[in-house]
Amino acid sequence: MGAIATAGLLYAGKQYEFGKGAVGETALTIAATKTGYGFVQAIALGMLCNALVCIAVWICYSARSTAGRILAIVPPITAFVAAGFEHSVANMFFIPFALLVKDDTSFVAAHKAPDLSGVTWGHFLTANLLPVTIGNVIGGALMVGAIYWFVYLRNSSTVPRRWPSLKAR
Asked: What is the model's pTM?
């Protein structure tokens, strides 16, 4: 809800008019792209995204300082953004913001806008948020979580003695 509320505040502040409307045009283009994926494609992009996000978290745990933690998360997060992978929480900001901008018909008429027929609340929920969330869960739980479990904790006899609560399992 925080991401959608932030989108509403940015819309109310008319942030989409910045740069002679470039911000709004970009928001509409991003939303049209994100709602244009097929169901399986959105799942795959969500899987790849959350695998990188979870790897960033694991790398962060290995750092010994705050600066090290910040530097550790930058490469995987940058990679998922640059590759165009899908994260459900990020999409809870981007697409609702574009949906609000789309409602400003005078703005849309005055600026370059892509085909916005697929940019609807229903399409956002069913064609993007649902499959991307499924992909995020698979990417985090199976592609990273299950692999770490398999490598480090699958055999309780290999759990180090310093983790007695895990050895009892």
From this structure: 0.83
pLDDT tens track for 136-145: 999 999 998 8
Domains within the chain, CATH numbers bracketed: 2-167 (1.20.1080.10)
Contact 3, 92 (CB under 8 A): yes
| Alpha helices for 63-146 (secondary structure H) | 66-83, 88-103, 105-110, 121-123, 130-138
In the predicted structure, residue 167 carries a pLDDT above the cut 60? no
Q: Go through 106-138 and write b for each residue having 16 or more CB atoms within 10 A of its CB, e for each that does not.
A: ebbeebebeebebbeeebbeebbbbbbbbbbbb
Q: Are 144 and 58 in contact (CB under 8 A)?
A: yes
Mean pLDDT on 10-26: 96
Q: Identify the three-state secondary structure at position 154.
A: coil
Question: CA angle, corner 132, sides to 126 and 135, nearest 5?
Answer: 130
